[in-house]
Structures are given as structure tokens and as C-alpha cells.
């Protein structure tokens, strides 16, 4: 049962505006989103939910639920992304953020890193002036002006070439992105990983702003305000790569333990802000200390930010991240000062 998953590409084609469609038939958009990304396994979904989704997509349950092939992960060597919400190769990634939370910096960093690993990078240029777009432009090879030009440029690239494609949410609302993906699939191109951004920040207030996604990165105002970058919230971000059949046991175990610590740490931190550290129960102090150090460790210097931060960019492979996080969870760095863990690579 672990390798069962929703046919996200079919849902994306048949029900572009899934948020309102789900509400109209009595489904919670958050539940649908979690099923699409794998945060809720298909085997744990209510039958009525699956039946309602099949009805929306005008398909059978056999078409909606597929036995998934292996979903490959693109290792970014960005600690918090690889650990909590891995990038699904060939999937669609949604970035949920308000302006100023650093989403375009993260995207620029990814394009920079993966361009150097032979990925073709394409940006569908958004209309108007937007802060941070110039950083994206510096790290893409191909800039297009409309969906038709985008299709032609991607279709002309060698079919085996891995492609990263970035587009603004306006093209999701019009249905252009769904049509582009369908046209590319019809000619046998499945190697395009699509990043969807919202430059207005409106997506923060919606449950399913981009439709079905393979990967969701939810940026966090509190992390950004405290200069904990990348400000991606591990508790609200997820990926279909995390489904049981696509992730090894070590990764899954460490990730789940880390989420548990961070979830409780955030609750304790709210108490500390009001009452002070001395009011935390002694039994919870260890959780607070380790959560604080784990959050600090998940910050990371970026190559594209070197001119501004004066810190050398760092890459950390997944195995080193897992090893370091396990050490933090085991208490090996309890005595380290927080400053020793902020904006480093591996421990």
C-alpha cells in the first residue's frame, strides 16, 4: 500500500481550480493538498474523499489512484529543503510566501546550484517590476515572454536534458501552466521541474493556491523576522518524495524526530517570550535547548548572497545533514553556543 499515490498530473489537468472545487463538494482544501503531496498517505484517506476527487476529475478510482513509480529527489544540498521537503524531480513546486520572506533568494540559489550541475534553466518573465527578479535573471539561461515561446524553447531542447522552469502564479490562474504541461507530456517530455511563485503574497491566505503539487515550500514570517534564512517552515512544507516508497528509512526517521522537536520547541518558545526561560518545566528544557540549536543549524549561507552577507556559500549533502541533525537530537551539541551553529555548513 505504501506505493499508492494520487494521479496528481491528471488532477492538475482536469481540475485546475481545485481549491474552490474541493470546497463545493465538502472537502477541506488542506486535506486535498496533503494527499497530493503525500503528507497524508492515500491508504489513510477516507473513501468518500477519494470518491469525491474522482468525481471532480471525471475519472475512475483506478485512474485517480496509481501505483507510483519511484519519485526521484533532486538533492539541492540546502539542509532544510532536502531534509523536510525534498525537491521532486519532474514535479511541480509551489512557493508560498509574502514579499520579503526570501522566496526569490531561495529560488535564485537553486537555479545557481543546479545550473552548475547541467540543468537547463528557464524563466517565463513576469509582467511589471518586482524586487529580486534581477537575481533570477542572472541565474537563468533562457528567458521567455509567453507560454507559446516557452513551449517552443523547451520542445527544442534535447529530450534527455533536465530542465528547471520558473513561472508566476498569474499563468496558473489562466490555466496556461496546465496546458503547457499537458502539451509537453503529449510529446514525451517529462524532465521539466516547474517552480511556481506568487509575487503578490496572496497565496499565503489560500489553502491550495497552485492546484495539486509534488512539493510545497511554505515560508515563515517569524523565521524571516528573526533572520533565520532560508525561512522555510519545516512544519508546513512537504513533498511527495516523503511517501514511504520513495525515501529511505534513515531519512524518514530523522525527519520525523526533527519535526517533533521543532513543533514542541515552537510552542515552548511562545511561552518563553511571555514568561521567560525560567518558567519552562525542567522536563521540557532539553527539548527547548535542542529545538533552538536545530533551528540555528538549519540556517545556511547562500552563494548568491555572498556579496551582501560576506559569508562563503555552503553546500551540505543529505547524508551529512542527517548525521548532524541526529547529533543535535541526541544532545551532542547541547553545550554549544547558538552562534556556533548559525549560518554554517555541516557541523
Automatic annotation (TrEMBL):
The keyword Cell division does not apply. Keywords: ATP synthesis, ATP-binding, CF(1), Ion transport, Membrane, Nucleotide-binding, Translocase, Transport. One of its GO terms (cellular component) is proton-transporting ATP synthase complex. Its main location: membrane. It comes from Ureibacillus manganicus DSM 26584. It is found in: Membrane. InterPro entries: ATPase_a/bsu_AS, ATPase_alpha/beta_chains, ATPase_F1/V1_b/a_C, P-loop_NTPase. One of its GO terms (molecular function) is ATP binding. Gene3D superfamilies: Bovine Mitochondrial F1-atpase, Atp Synthase Beta Chain, Chain D, domain 3, P-loop containing nucleotide triphosphate hydrolases. Belongs to the ATPase alpha/beta chains family. It comes from the Bacteria. This is ATP synthase subunit B. PANTHER family: ATP SYNTHASE, ATP SYNTHASE SUBUNIT BETA, MITOCHONDRIAL.
